[in-house]
Amino acid sequence: MKILFVTSNRLGDAVLSTGLLDHLIRAHPGARITVVCGPVAEGVFARMPNRDRTIVLRKLPRGRHWLPLWAATLPHLWDLVVDIRGSALSWLVPTRRRAVFRRTGGPKIAELAAILGLSPPPAPVAWTASADHQRIDARLPPGRPIIALAPTANWAPKLWPADRFAAAFRRLAGPDTLPVVLGGPGEAEQAMAAPVLAALPEAIDLVGRLTLPEAAACLQRATLFIGNDSGLMHLAAAAGAPTIGLFGPTDAATYGPAGPRAVAVVAGSMDAITVDRVVAAARALLDQAPMAATSSASTAGTSRRVVSI
Predict the structure, then answer these.
(1) Which of 25, 120, 201, 231 is the most buried (most CB within 10 A)?
(2) What is the pLDDT confidence band of residue 83, given thresholds at 50, 70 and 90?
(3) Which long-range contacts (CB under 8 A, 24 or more apart) does 267-271 make?
(4) Keywords on this record (predicted)?
(5) Kind of pairing, strands 243-247 and 224-228?
(6) What is the pLDDT of residues 271-290, one digit of tens each?
């Protein structure tokens, strides 16, 4: 069986789409899947089982990027085309069946699940390999708990103040707990993370230093994740880390973290999110027993709470 899966250019949406792929892999264990995604999201699928190929869609002016993609997918007769972008491509390639995104409202993972008529929504997953865990083991001290902090985002109003990240860590950390600061590649991400690193001189700086599978392996070791609304937040929830997502100007009801233990802390602005609220939400989250995700249709994908302040 040959499946063409057209997913997002954005990291967060690509992570949320992994629940659909996990469902397809379980339902069709012999399938060969071609994934279409943007360059930022490519690493999400690097360790995916049944992946035949990844086609990286690099945007060109006036939509010219669609022509080479169409040329690459046209020669094949697909058994199924799944398109979470709702693009014209899914109607222009030969396929026995197509499932195309249509906006329905509500949580994004529920909208994605509706593409294949799935309820409850399948939980997002984070694929890793043993090599990723070995690289993380080489970077992190053995046996010490870590709290992962992700102080970056793609928009300045989504940033929680750096001093509050540091204060939340201090209040939640045990005597052996280490802060690990995560972020994407590039000078902008480093600049956003720098004040947190300065406030926590003992922190391990992994900003821009990890592939996405390595970041997922790191997050699978985390005792707790605290981060702004970002792709890393979604990756943390998918990896199973207890996840606190911080939301001010963005829509937590649609894009809140989805995972076995995940919560969105929401206010009218990031400045209005207090350290007290984050610490209380984290302690409540850590008191929960992890939910088992035994199949792609597990309710873990909808385990989301919103704490409004």
Answers:
(1) 231
(2) very high
(3) 267/308, 267/309, 269/157, 270/157, 270/158, 270/159, 270/160, 270/161, 270/228, 270/246, 271/161
(4) Glycosyltransferase, Transferase
(5) parallel
(6) 999 999 999 999 999 998 66
**pLDDT of res. 288:** 83
Contacts of 174 (CB under 8 A, 6+ apart): 145
Topology (CATH level 3) of domain 2-115? Rossmann fold (3.40.50)
**Nearest in space to 43 (alpha carbons), one of 80, 18, 68, 71:** 18
Report the distance separating Cα 129 and Cα 43, nearest Å.
12
Contact 12, 212 (CB under 8 A): no
**CATH topology for the 130-308 domain:** Rossmann fold (3.40.50)
Q: What length is written for the chain? A: 309
Helix axes 275-287, 162-172, angle to 10 degrees: 40
Q: Which two tokens stand for residue 168?
A: 């939340």
pTM for the whole structure: 0.92
CB < 8 Å & 24+ apart, contacts of 55-63: 57/9, 59/9
**Confidence class of residue 62 from pLDDT cuts 50, 70 and 90?**
low
- pLDDT tens-digit series, residues 22-38: 999 999 999 999 999 99
**Which band of pLDDT confidence, cut at 50, 70 and 90, is reported for residue 291?**
low
pLDDT for residue 294 is more than 80: no
Token pair, residue 76, equals 């094949």
Helices 231-239 and 212-221: crossing angle, nearest 10°?
50
Question: How do the domains of the chain map onto residue ranges?
Answer: 2-115, 130-308
